[in-house]
Design brief:
about 20% strand; 8 strands; about 240 residues; single chain; binds zinc ion
């Protein structure tokens, strides 16, 4: 997927990085990412993903912009209050980078629509704020064989992990959870992880949970183990992968 002169100029700072280069930039252009939830995580990740030149972004969010969102969701302006988040985000992306195709899905993701909405993407970025939706998105990602970038934050704690639960011996999000948590921030780090996964920068980092404590300014990494009894990724027959 060739880059135009305009794109070569726009992404020059990316292309000079040996880990990205022209090939990596073309991978980003060819890639599609589904962002589930355009709240604290999504609204922070999307400007970075659009700026980086991910070719297609699908924004799935059934909510409208609320006054209380403006404090930490930099994508939204005061004039957006009351408008749909998916449509506002798609308009923002078009302004930010005309080379990115944005699709707005103003629906809440449910067991009935998840597979249809998520199929056909190269990566899913989950920034939703509840446990049930996170498991639904993870199970769908595993069944569709799509890598899942899961990001969450609560107060000063942030967690980001890349999952490839469809690959043999690799954990999925369901292998990991046991504690429910609610989401807020760390979208920029999630965007970086998404770009690394698309470009193919090593180490791959799938199955490692990155924990950030904004109060003590420390990072921790936890290696997650695949659960052989996991009802989603453990039940996938290796011959079907
Ligand atoms: Zn699993």
């Amino acid at each position: 997927m060739a880059l135009t002169d305009d794109e070569l100029d726009r992404y020059a700072r990316h292309i000079v990085l040996p880990q990205v280069g022209g090939v990596g930039q073309q991978r980003l252009k060819a890639a599609s990412i589904a962002v589930v939830g355009a709240g604290g995580i999504g609204a922070a990740a999307i400007p970075a993903l659009a700026g980086a030149g991910v070719g297609r972004l699908t924004i799935i969010d059934g909510d409208s912009v609320d006054l209380s969102n403006l404090q930490r969701q930099p994508l939204y302006r005061t004039a957006d209050i009351g408008k749909g988040k998916a449509a506002s985000t798609a308009a923002f992306i078009a302004d930010r980078n005309p080379h990115v195709a944005a699709a707005a899905v103003a629906e809440r993701i449910t067991p009935a629509n998840a597979a249809v909405l998520l199929a056909g993407h190269d990566l899913i970025l989950d920034g939703t704020d509840n446990f049930a939706t996170r498991l639904l998105v993870s199970d769908s990602a595993t069944r569709l064989a799509i890598p899942l970038l899961s990001a969450a934050a609560q107060q000063f704690q942030g967690q980001v992990a890349l999952f490839r639960g469809h690959e043999p011996g690799r954990p999925c999000y369901r292998c990991f959870v046991g504690d429910a948590f609610d989401a807020d921030d760390c979208g920029s780090f999630a965007a970086l992880m998404a770009i690394r996964a698309i470009v193919g920068i090593s180490p791959d980092a799938a199955g490692t949970l990155h924990l950030f404590d904004g109060a003590s300014l420390t990072w921790r990494q936890l290696r997650l183990m695949a659960d052989p009894g996991c009802r989603t990724c453990g039940s996938v027959d290796a011959t079907d992968r």
